[in-house]
Design goal:
The structure holds 2 protein chains of 2 kinds.
Chain A: H1 6-13, H2 20-29, H3 31-46, E1 50-51, H4 59-67, H5 87-93, H6 95-130, H7 136-163, H8 169-193, H9 199-217, H10 224-233, H11 236-251, H12 253-256, H13 261-264
Helix pairs in contact in A: 2-3, 6-7, 6-8, 7-8, 7-11, 8-9, 9-11
Chain B: H1 3-18, H2 24-44, H3 47-63, H4 74-96, H5 100-104, E1 113-114, H6 121-139, H7 143-154, H8 159-166, H9 170-194
Helix pairs in contact in B: 1-2, 2-3, 2-4, 3-4, 6-9, 7-8, 7-9, 8-9
Classes of the chains: A mainly alpha, B mainly alpha.
Chain lengths: 266, 195
């Protein structure tokens, strides 16, 4: 056997060695390890037990007296249905369990609503992904509606950002959430747009993507300074103008003097 | 009171509490509060924190009483909760500490009664110094190491019990004890030379 490690000696000292017989044989045969073990035993024997200050016989009563007012009584057991031992009845009448149950139910409801919203949004965006260059005219109305909706939301977001009272958390959080949601939708639009040839739209969506990403990832959260920085560095006003022009062109192609088929190829 | 009889009394009290008799919990508190105070004090090294940990443990125990397995031992169960509460206390306190060394070397800060049977005045003085140094060494450990060491060295708990109380694997508990012993020995090495 190799020399004992300190870990093995500590385990031996506390009677938890994996192979006590082998350790003892080695200690009997190896003077170096025997000395090291003797030193360990002496060191640990010197570490006295911390003696807790004595508590008188009334200590437990005092603890209970301090606790009792804060404890609600469990509801009396009743034999009900399949639960038989009343466990289920107790579970739901205990105020803590009740509170937790309400919280869990609310969380579940919010999760379901969020999931449903995501699915609905994805379904709305699905037609963009399904558009193929081979049949642009057939898909065009849907694509235009979806893109218009996205640009409409983006426009409203940019207007809100411009006029936001960002010193209020009630304003800053929804703005950031909306930016996050728009960012996801914008990336789907950009991905599909990559297959088409509308450089103006592509540029605007790229610009929008950068602004949204900056808004979502602003380290200190949204405040007057960060908004001013975004407005300045990201040219949010310019983007707002671009988005408005694009919306006009998509929803009223005849006014923009463009080929009506242009928006439909996205 | 024998352990078996205490178990039966504990289970009867738990049934009564769950049936709506809140006062029955008082019997459990009275029966186990001294044990909980002892371990909480050993872990926190502070009477006020230990008393807080005991109260918090019984409070948590009451809230979780429905989940208590009837085959388990209430004493062991509430003991583990108390270890957790004491551990939380020292973790919180460690976060607040700005100067651990200054605090630990203040002889009035951590009054520890070191067991010492045959005592002349010099021996008592030395014993007090040893106690202070030991407390300082304990303070140098992380909260988990300290709890593991106190449970292993002073409470005679097995590594499996330590792991269960700390919510970690037995092997991790074993490692925590090893690290604690190594650090304690290093910190107390000057004491060995002096004596």
């Amino acid at each position: 056997m190799m020399h004992l490690t300190e870990e093995e000696m500590i385990a031996e000292f506390y009677g938890e060695s994996d192979n006590p017989a082998a350790v003892e044989r080695h200690l009997a045969a190896c003077a170096g390890c025997a000395q090291a073990f003797a030193e360990l035993k002496r060191d640990l024997a010197d570490v006295n037990r911390i003696e807790a200050p004595a508590r008188d016989a009334g200590y437990g009563e005092r603890v209970w007296a301090a606790l009792a007012p804060a404890l609600p009584a469990y509801a009396k057991q009743e034999r009900r249905g399949w639960a038989g031992n009343g466990w289920a009845a107790r579970r739901w009448t205990n105020p803590w369990t009740k509170g937790l149950s309400y919280a869990a139910a609310c969380a579940l409801l919010v999760s379901c609503a969020f999931y449903a919203g995501r699915v609905w949004e994805q379904q709305k965006q699905q037609p963009i992904a399904q558009v193929t260059p081979k049949a642009p005219q057939a898909k065009q109305p849907i694509v235009v509606v979806v893109l218009d909706d996205h640009l409409d939301r983006s426009e409203r977001f940019l207007v809100q950002l411009k006029h936001a009272d960002v010193d209020s958390a009630q304003t800053a959080w929804p703005l950031r959430d909306e930016a996050r949601s728009l960012l996801a939708a914008n990336r789907v639009c950009r991905k599909n747009l990559a297959k088409t040839s509308d450089p103006e739209l592509a540029t605007a969506l790229d610009h929008l993507d950068s602004l949204l990403a900056e808004t979502v990832n602003e380290p200190g959260g949204l405040n007057a300074a960060s908004i001013a920085k975004l407005q300045d560095e990201m040219n949010a006003d310019g983007l707002l103008f671009e988005v408005r022009v694009l919306r006009t062109r998509i929803t009223h192609p005849e006014r923009a003097g463009d080929n009506p088929a242009k928006g439909g190829t996205i | 009171m024998s352990n078996d009889r205490m178990d039966r009394n504990d289970h009867a009290a738990i049934q009564a509490v769950l049936a709506g008799d809140k006062e029955a919990y008082g019997a459990l508190v009275v029966r186990h509060s001294h044990t909980l105070f002892r371990v909480a004090y050993r872990i926190t090294g502070n009477e006020a924190d230990a008393e807080d940990a005991v109260q918090e443990a019984f409070l948590r125990g009451y809230r979780k009483l429905e989940g208590f397995e009837s085959r388990a031992n209430f004493g062991t169960w509430i003991y583990r909760i108390a270890v957790h509460c004491a551990l939380d206390k020292i973790k919180r306190r460690k976060g607040d500490e700005t100067s651990r060394v200054a605090e630990a070397t203040d002889p009035e800060q951590d009054q520890v009664q070191v067991a010492d049977a045959g005592a002349g005045p010099e021996r008592l003085l030395l014993s007090g110094e040893i106690g202070s140094l030991q407390m300082e060494a304990l303070h140098s450990l992380t909260a988990t190491e300290r709890t593991a060491f106190v449970m292993r060295h002073m409470e005679d708990s097995t590594t499996a019990e330590i792991g269960a109380a700390l919510g970690i694997e037995p092997n991790a508990a074993k490692q925590a004890v090893f690290r604690a012993v190594q650090k304690m020995r290093r910190r107390l090495a000057p004491l060995r030379v002096a004596t």
